[in-house]
TrEMBL record:
This protein's UniProt keywords: ATP-binding, Cell membrane, Membrane, Molybdenum, Nucleotide-binding, Translocase, Transport
Transmembrane segments: none
GO MF annotation, one: ATP hydrolysis activity
Identification of the protein by name: Molybdate transport system ATP-binding protein
Amino acid sequence: MTGALSLRASHETRGLDVALEVKPGEHVAILGPNGAGKSTVLSLIAGLLRPDTGRAVLDDRTLFDERTFVPPHARGVTLLAQDPLLFPHLSVLDNVAFGPRASGATAKQARATAETFLDEVDASEFVDRRPAQLSGGQAQRVAIARALAARPSLLLLDEPMAALDVAAAPLLRRVLKRVLADRSALIVTHDVLDALLLSDRLIVLDHGRIVEDGPTQDVIARPRTPFTARIAGLNLINGTAASGTHLVDAHGVDVSGAPTEQLATGESALAVFSPNAVAVYETPPHGSPRNTFEVTVVELEPRDAQVRVRAHDRAGHTLLADLTASSVGELDLYPGKRAFYSVKATAVTIYPS
Ligand SMILES: Nc1ncnc2c1ncn2[C@@H]1O[C@H](COP(=O)(O)OP(=O)(O)OP(=O)(O)O)[C@@H](O)[C@H]1O
């Protein structure tokens, strides 16, 4: 299988300095806050931007180094942007056939290729339509077919779901999952769900640097940065291991939990727990071996059948608790109210940072 990428690149004005690998057939998601450099990474690989230094190799072909700069069309890489960017005056079929035709296929071959890939994205029924006659989700599927028709070794997806309404996203996600099988892809997304569903590995970028890189589920379950914890919807406290099962943060908050491995006293460590595991009280709870955090409620956010209560503890950590609406009513919670978050040690995972 093809699609092995090795990238090392820096771009000073964009504040980027990264090194990453994609294995053949692997799907790597890139998450990160706005301005972290996610699109810049894709632009460097696609050849839309020149790095200051670095080297990229795709399947033994150098895309760039200090002497080489392969132009975008010759890289074997296709970038699928948020906006499908279809030619408005061409039919769906001709939009997809355009690439193969431009790279030398006969009109008949190019159309046959287009039909194959439109079928692959469940878009055969609208081959004769113009882009203006398509919904956002349909247009994006056509754009995927067009990207695949170029037979890239590596697909670059820049927030493929971002421009779609909520109802259209699940179908596109299913199509993407299917077409990405056996193809290498780098997927920039804001959505942790997309990362979980579409990627094997997750890279988190922050300020132009890679701050997390690992199997997607591990990175989500054991975040190392507040950003990852937030997008994963988990509570994260960093500090140092105080004993086998305790962590103390910089403000002296003591958290007891279940360590994933043996921790030496003084070693940097992280404690993570789910908002579901948090019980909320108006007065300090007594009598059980629980972690208690005195907090001030900052925000109440309705989410499906629950309410997510966002609060700050005295050390400034943002801590989340998921409660039923009736509990929120009974506790009379509102922004500014003082409350106590309580979480059992068994619900807290402690691991080295
Ligand atoms: N065309 C440009 N010219 C100059 N600087 C740019 C340009 N595009 C982005 N930048 C800067 O480069 C840095 C990285 O931006 P980039 O768009 O790659 O981030 P991103 O992670 O994709 O962000 P977002 O999630 O907002 O799309 C930012 O500091 C940004 O301001």
